């Protein structure tokens, strides 16, 4: 999935595994500090990301990633990028996230749009619905297809 000598690896916080039932959507949140590295190891899922970061080249763009058994990818989501995912497989898909920060139960680094943010951030609400319409204007964050590990020199 991810090695500590690969360019995508930044640092280790924690690894967790979750399942998502067919048709269920999880998330629509962002992190201020944490970077997520998602891999779907069983079944298929749709991961949607929306960039609301001011001044970011892909600001305002939505991207969809269909990842899993039939399209094995690791998708890295940077801080302050809204994201969520939907289960596409019956009965469920299995997802692993290798994040750069450990989960803090008292103060989780997880921010969701809600009633108090609706007017201020109305451009974010419903961005997942816009994803299909915006596929002509997408920015791909850091995506890696799994490859064989680099060959090591026998003298190491």
Provide structural commentary.
With 156 residues, this protein is an all-beta fold. The protein has a single domain, classed as Jelly Rolls (Sandwich). Helix content is 3%, strand content 38%. It has one helix spanning 127-130; strands spanning 14-21, 25-29, 36-42, 44-51, 62-68, 73-77, 81-87, 92-99, 142-145. The strands form two sheets. Strands 1-8-3-6-9 form a five-stranded antiparallel sheet, with no helix packed on it. It is globular. The model is unreliable at 116-142 and 144-149 (pLDDT under 50).
Describe the protein's topology.
Elements: E1 14-21, E2 25-29, E3 36-42, E4 44-51, E5 62-68, E6 73-77, E7 81-87, E8 92-99, H1 127-130, E9 142-145
Output the keywords.
mainly beta; four-stranded antiparallel β-sheet; five-stranded antiparallel β-sheet; 38% strand; 1 helix; Jelly Rolls; single chain
> On the 0-100 scale, what is the average pLDDT?
79
Question: How many domain regions?
Answer: 1
In whole angstroms, how far apart are the ends? Answer: 23 Å
Structural class: mainly beta
How is the biggest beta sheet arranged? 5 strands, antiparallel
Q: Unreliable stretches, pLDDT < 50, 5 or more residues?
A: 116-142, 144-149
Q: Which architecture would the CATH scheme give at its second level?
A: Sandwich
Task: Give the ordered list of helices and strands.
Answer: EEEEEEEEHE
